[in-house]
């Protein structure tokens, strides 16, 4: 007689699958990345949290590398970077951009300027809104207060090494009552200069 059949044993677990689970873990959620970003992630970028997490982590590591390079080697990591500036005036928005090449990392980015006297339509109360966008992935919005001068910016902008980094500043004049854009913002605000990474000052001679 043939020997009685034996129940099939469960297949041995594949150690590669277990290693993969340990290596990757659960996918990061966009909300968990917020504490590591000054301002907000742009919605289209936040929709890819794994890519966002990688870029945020790379920026953290590069900032540390650059910090030690300054301390130990007395060398500037961003030496040799080049830039160009541009402005554009729309119907209701004023845009100024700084394009920077060979930028390894940045500790901060600031836009500085002042208001100018400008008369709006009678009985219209307006609010000036300034939005700073870095590489189309990080954004921070400010509402200007009553002071004539302003110095606005964000800490640890998300830099993309190896490509042209674009710092975009958009100024809008908003009708306070309706929340709608109104008037020419370029007539109300003058941007005088940008400051990048505590070191480099980019002056706008005339906007």
Question: Can you tag this structure with a few keywords?
Answer:
single chain, 207 residues, Jelly Rolls, 4 helices, 10 strands
Write down the secondary-structure element order: HHEHHEEEEEEEEE
Q: What is the second-level CATH architecture of one domain?
A: Sandwich
Residue runs with pLDDT of under 50 for 5 or more positions: 5-25
CATH T-level fold name of one domain: Jelly Rolls
User: Measured on Cα atoms, how large is the radius of gyration?
Assistant: 25 Å
The computed structural class is: alpha+beta
What is the number of E strands? Answer: 10
Distance between the termini: 98 Å
Helix content: 10-25%
Beta content = 25-35%
Mean pLDDT metric: 81
Biggest sheet: strand arrangement = 1-6-5-8-3-2
CATH C-level category of one domain: Mainly Beta
- How would you describe the shape? globular
């Amino acid at each position: 007689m043939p020997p009685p059949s034996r129940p099939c044993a469960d297949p041995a677990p594949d150690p590669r699958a277990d290693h993969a689970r340990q290596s990757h873990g659960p996918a990061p959620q966009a909300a968990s990345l917020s504490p590591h970003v000054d301002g907000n992630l742009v919605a289209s970028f936040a929709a890819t949290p794994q890519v966002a997490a990688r870029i945020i982590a790379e920026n953290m590591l590069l900032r540390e590398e650059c910090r030690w390079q300054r301390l130990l080697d007395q060398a500037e990591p961003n030496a040799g970077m080049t830039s160009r500036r541009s402005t554009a005036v729309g119907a209701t928005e004023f845009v100024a951009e700084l394009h920077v090449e060979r930028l390894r990392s940045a500790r901060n980015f600031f836009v500085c300027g002042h208001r100018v006297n400008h008369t709006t339509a009678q009985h219209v109360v307006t609010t000036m809104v300034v939005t700073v966008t870095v590489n189309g992935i990080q954004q921070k919005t400010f509402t200007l207060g009553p002071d004539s001068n302003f110095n606005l910016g964000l800490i640890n902008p998300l830099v993309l090494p190896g490509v042209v980094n674009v710092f975009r500043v958009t100024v809008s004049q908003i009708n306070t009552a309706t929340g709608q854009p109104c008037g020419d913002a370029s007539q109300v605000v003058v941007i005088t200069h940008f400051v990048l990474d505590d070191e480099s000052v980019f002056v706008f001679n005339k906007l």
